[in-house]
Write a structure and sequence with these properties.
With about 160 residues, the chain is α+β, with helices and mostly antiparallel strands. It folds into two domains: about 110 residues, Transposase IS200-like (Alpha-Beta Plaits, 2-Layer Sandwich); about 40 residues, no CATH class. The protein is built from four helices and six strands. Strands 4-5-3-6 form a four-stranded antiparallel sheet, with helices on one face. A two-stranded antiparallel ribbon has the order 1-2. Strand 4 and strand 5 form a beta hairpin. The two termini are about 35 Å apart.
């Protein structure tokens, strides 16, 4: 289980599964050396961004990564930074290696895949919210008929008001 991030004004988390593909879908990751190099560069990029790179796995022509602790970034920003830094670093330090793969001036394709990864299921979140709301409202609505509008001094309504 991953820890929630805490800051002065909020608590939360954001985890992504992402997939990047080399330009022209070249099979550059067939070679252990290239996999090790790209893994190390992606870890450097994640460190610079202050996010955690939990997992990096390769297919012959793509890489899957699992990043956590990235609530300050959208999926597009994550892809831009991770792909941008790794491509720049490879081109700066390993230009001859990239020429051998006929990759030109780009390492990655323009696109990417991403999906958010949650800590719990939707049903679990709904149950938690309902239980918490019940605790919060326990002292304010005793004697109120079911289905009646139940508001506190803050004007908030209970979840059971919206049953269909």
């Amino acid at each position: 289980m991953y820890e929630l991030e805490r800051s002065r004004h909020c608590v939360g988390g954001s985890n992504y599964h992402m997939q990047f593909t080399p330009k022209y879908r070249r099979h550059v990751f067939r070679y252990r050396g290239m996999r090790s190099l790209v893994r190390a560069i992606l870890k450097m990029a994640a460190h610079r961004m202050r996010i955690r790179l939990e997992t990096v796995e390769f297919g012959p022509d793509h890489v899957h990564i699992f990043v956590t602790g990235c609530r300050k970034y959208s999926a597009a920003e994550l892809a831009q930074h991770l792909k941008g830094f790794s491509s720049w670093y490879l081109r700066k330090n390993y230009r001859e290696l990239l020429k051998a793969y006929c990759l030109g001036i780009s390492f990655w394709t323009d696109g990417y895949f991403s999906e958010t990864i949650g800590r719990v299921t939707t049903e679990t979140v709904m149950l938690y919210i309902e239980r918490q709301q019940g605790k919060h409202w326990m002292n304010y609505d005793q004697g109120t008929q079911p289905g009646a509008v139940r508001k506190s001094f803050t004007g908030q309504s209970r979840l059971d008001m919206f049953q269909t």
